[in-house]
Amino acid sequence: MTMHAYRSRLHQAQGFTLIELLVTIAMAAILASLAAPSVRDFIVRSKLTNLGGEFTASVLKARNEAVNRNTCVTMCMSSSAGGVAPACTTSGTDWQVGWIAFLNPSCDSGASAPADSVDMLLARPTTGSDYLLQTQDSKKKFLFNARGAPGLSSAGQFNIVYQDVSNPLNDKFSINICMDGLGRTRTIPSDKTCAGYK
């Protein structure tokens, strides 16, 4: 083997130079900075959609249980601070604090907690205040009858928004949920109202 061939093979076996490594790191940083807004958008959209999905699924469960068991079911905003059993709350407009659904065999509209722990159907705890599920009609409680209808007075609109209301992501990903007098829900764009959107 000639000296030239030996040096050529030795040169090929070496690793990256410092310049090559710095250029690679700089390119990775640029690509990461370009991807960051997309990742943030995905997280916000996902959390808003999940919150809406949880709420509509809870409404559906309460309706179905009322029909299947041929009894009344109450669903309400809950308060469970300090390790106390969850119960309906009478303050606030943000369902993000959590909600509960329980069997209400006496169909008592004033009931604020299940008579027995076995009557509790679901208890959704609060998960922080980054995302809000706000009622626009001061609805804090629904009483589903044995036909699964909460009554015409329970129809209302709920807005799901990102806590930072000045954030442009609100306009992009916020949604509204409409509930009619039969307990059916539908999702509409955030800049629309339930009454005006068909």
TrEMBL record:
Domain General secretion pathway GspH as annotated: residue spans: 54-181
Cellular location(s): Cell inner membrane
SUPFAM superfamilies xrefs: Pili subunits (SSF54523)
Pfam families: GspH (PF12019), N_methyl (PF07963)
Membrane topology, from the record: Single-pass membrane protein
Matches recorded under InterPro entries: N_methyl_site, Pilin-like, T2SS_GspH
Keyword vocabulary terms for this entry: Cell inner membrane, Cell membrane, Membrane, Methylation, Transmembrane, Transmembrane helix
Entry annotated with the keyword Cell membrane: yes
Family: Belongs to the GSP H family.
Descriptive protein name: Type II secretion system protein H
Organism: Acidovorax benzenivorans
